[in-house]
Specification:
Length: 280
């Protein structure tokens, strides 16, 4: 099994932290984490990376505004501005490692970022998998509104509730909700993370939506996966994306919430590997 290492690289004048695994000579897969409180490369992807790294070079960055990546003082004032900054960040990460093209796997807000990357630099992207992706067409749920306004009540108990709501059955997380929430709460109370988060969600999450006129021009192969019980981005969003993307397949997992890569890791890994290896 390939080792996963922690690394940093300079991207557009600031330092990006990322997880790196697999042979540098193999096709690259870049994993893009979601946007909830405490999200980062490790919390979203560390347990999933071994499913890919024997066959691919896997990079999972802390997107700017999250985790151990630098939090620049001069931050965008809108969600769409943050997405543009993150597109530039991932492209700079690829350039720093001589990666001309990469497969993208995006969870939630990371899925919206993947589609924005396809819009901005389609020649740099090979295949895309979106998991519980934002960027489609769905109405904000009470759960997602609690998430984007988390710092109005940034308590440990509020984070415990959010963590439970992200999954269908919290007993499958492999650790107690209290322990997971306590670890993440220390992270999200760092002043720079709070500042970035509040600035990112100072405008509506609907800004991340990708217009149908753009979706129908994305000829890349897409694998869409969604948890049937996802209450943060409801499955109708992926149905909508599948209807507008010209080369997309969709799989909906029953008894699964927002974190397919955790709740259905084995089954999703099989789907993803077959999708990436297919000739199309």
């Amino acid at each position: 099994m390939a080792e996963t290492t922690e690394r940093t690289v300079t991207t557009n004048g600031y330092s990006t932290f990322f997880l790196d695994s697999g042979d540098e000579g193999k096709e690259a897969v870049i994993l893009l984490h979601g946007g909830g409180p405490g999200a980062n490369a490790a919390s979203n992807w560390r347990g999933f990376i071994p499913a890919l790294s024997d066959d691919y070079r896997v990079l999972a960055p802390d997107l700017v505004g999250y985790g151990r990546t630098d939090h620049p003082e001069d931050m965008p004032g809108s969600l769409i501005g943050w997405l543009r900054m993150r597109v530039d960040q991932v492209l700079a990460l690829m350039d720093a490692h001589g990666i001309e093209q990469a497969h993208l796997v995006g969870n939630s807000m990371g899925g919206a970022l993947a589609m924005h990357m396809v819009m901005a630099a389609p020649e740099r992207v090979r295949k895309v998998s979106l998991m519980g992706s934002a960027g489609g067409h769905s109405q904000p749920t009470p759960e997602v509104m609690r998430m984007v306004s988390f710092y109005k009540d940034p308590t440990l108990s509020a984070l415990e509730n959010l963590t439970k709501w992200f999954v269908y059955d919290e007993t499958g997380l492999g650790a107690s909700i209290a322990a997971i929430a306590e670890e993440r709460h220390k992270e999200i109370m760092r002043p720079e993370i709070r500042r970035s988060y509040e600035r990112f969600f100072s405008s509506s999450p609907a800004e991340a939506a990708v217009p149908p006129s753009a979706l129908r021009r994305m000829a890349h192969p897409f694998l869409l996966v969604h948890g049937r019980e996802d209450r943060f981005v409801t499955p109708d969003s992926s149905v909508y994306l599948q209807q507008h993307l010209p080369n997309a397949e969709l799989h909906i997992f029953p008894q699964c919430g927002h974190w397919v890569q955790i709740e259905r890791a084995g089954a999703y890994a099989v789907l993803l590997r077959n999708f990436l290896k297919a000739a199309n």
